[in-house]
Amino acid sequence: MQFPELILSTHGPGETLALGQHMGSLLEAGDVVALVGDLGAGKTCLVQGIARGLDVPESSYVRSPSFMILNIYPGRCTLHHLDLYRIHSPAELEDLGYREIFYGEGVTVIEWADKIDSLLPEEHLRVRLEFQDEMGRVITMAGIGDRYRERWEAFKVSLARFVGS
Ligand code: ADP
Ligand code: MG
Fold first, then answer.
1. Between the N and C ends of the chain, which has fewer C-beta atoms within 10 Å?
2. Predicted confidence (pLDDT) per residue in 36-79, tens digit
3. In b/e form, how buried is each residue of 127-160, taking b as 16+ CB within 10 angstroms?
4. Which residue's C-alpha comes closest to atom 12 of ligand 1?
5. Could you report the per-residue pLDDT of 108-125, keeping only the tens digit for each?
């Protein structure tokens, strides 16, 4: 089941970072966050915030894994950060052992998640980032699956200050 979408907006990377940090503080072991949006929309920026919210040490600098599809960071939960920009087919994830990652104990955040829709766990948090203007981004979030049902209100309350576009 899909919950009503939560539509937020940020003005500048600092706000997206702060939004990510709020999200990260609400994430739990086993959560999967699917990020969708064009190049430069702010996906990596959001992941940097999520890392902060998961207490990933500042010394582990989160960036776009340019040659790696997967980066793993220690934190309150292990953060698996996938960037699928360069993959051509979902089959390329087989070598990675993606099932253990997606259904494991860590938190998984996937950039370009729409490239692997068929492999995504049925239950996940879907986040779409869209350009509004140079500094403005509209960020739409939806919890998909029962896993997020009870937590949806907490998400809404905690992220309320970002609401409005
Ligand atoms: P993606 O991973 O989606 O390709 P990045 O996070 O790497 O995007 O880059 C986003 C770029 O957009 C950065 O250069 C950042 O400074 C800029 N930017 C401007 N406004 C915002 C905003 N509101 N949120 C996030 N990034 C923004
Ligand atoms: Mg990126």
1. N
2. 999 999 999 999 999 999 999 988 877 765 667 899 999 999 99
3. bbbbeeeeeebbbbbbbbeebbeebbeebeeebe
4. 40
5. 999 999 999 999 999 999
Number of the ligand 1 atom closest to the C-alpha atom of 45: 6
Q: Which H/E stretch holds residue 128?
A: strand 124-131
Instruction: State the distance from the centre of ligand 1 to the C-alpha of 62, rounded, in angstroms.
Output: 14
pTM, rounded to two decimals: 0.95
Ion ligand 2: residue ranges with CB closer than 5 A: 43-44, 64, 111
What is the rounded radius of gyration, in angstroms, for the C-alpha atoms of the chain?
15
Task: Kindly report the length of the chain.
Answer: 165
What crossing angle do the helices spanning 13-26 and 43-53 adopt, rounded to 10°?
50
User: In one letter, which amino acid is 117?
Assistant: D
